[in-house]
Amino acid sequence: MGITATMRADSSNDAGEDRTRDDVAALIGRARRGSGDSLGRLLQMYRNYLMVLAGTQIERRLQPRMSPSDVVQETMLRAHANFGQFRGASEPELIGWLRQILVNNLAKFVEQHVLAARRDVRREVSIERLGRALEQSTIQLAALLPAGNRSPSAAAQQREEAVLLADRLAMLAPDYREVLILRNLQGLPFEKIAEQMERSVSATRMLWLRAIEKLRGLYAGEQSHEE
């Protein structure tokens, strides 16, 4: 099962436009005081974000053996079990902590399903490479925001924007999500995307243009509600 089939549009209600840093900080505080419900809600807010990042790092040919949803589920379980080790109090700190767990889990899954020899050396290389790749994917994800909705920001702010954008992607039709992820995040040429999606190159280009239009429409709709 691919990434586009396992992202959850309904979770955008928890992590949507009404979410603020104060909301996240309050949830972190309640979770730290032992509220299992708050911890569950808190982690669920980042499922789509983690799904996008995991999906960009797992090649399509490996996904039957190494599913992004499996990697993310393991990440959520580890985050839940080890939340006592989280020392931050803000959303950027939480995002960074979750991304590190995801990096470690991706490396572990690669070891289990792909690599057979020199595991220790390969694991170190994989973690370093995956860390850099995830950082780049985060920047590319934030860059998908329509220009009018995005102001120059620091890396931490870009990461928060990327979380919100992942929730918007979850609201799109699966084909729209897939073509945006393949083109804008994985950087594949249209010829390769067309092959993977079993479409003509011209149809793939049109699909991508419609996906961009739909994504921008979501942001335009949010702006009109705010005015």
From TrEMBL:
GO terms for biological process: DNA-templated transcription initiation. GO terms for molecular function: DNA binding; sigma factor activity. Residues 164-215 form the RNA polymerase sigma factor 70 region 4 type domain. The keyword ATP-binding does not apply. It holds the Pfam family Sigma70_r4_2. It comes from the Bacteria. Keywords: Sigma factor, Transcription, Transcription regulation. InterPro entries: RNA_pol_sigma-70-like, RNA_pol_sigma-70_dom, RNA_pol_sigma-70_Plancto, RNA_pol_sigma70_r4_t2, RNA_pol_sigma_r2, RNA_pol_sigma_r3/r4-like, WH-like_DNA-bd_sf. Belongs to the sigma-70 factor family. ECF subfamily. NCBIfam families: Sig-70_plancto1, sigma70-ECF. This is ECF RNA polymerase sigma factor SigH. It comes from Lacipirellula limnantheis. The gene is sigH.
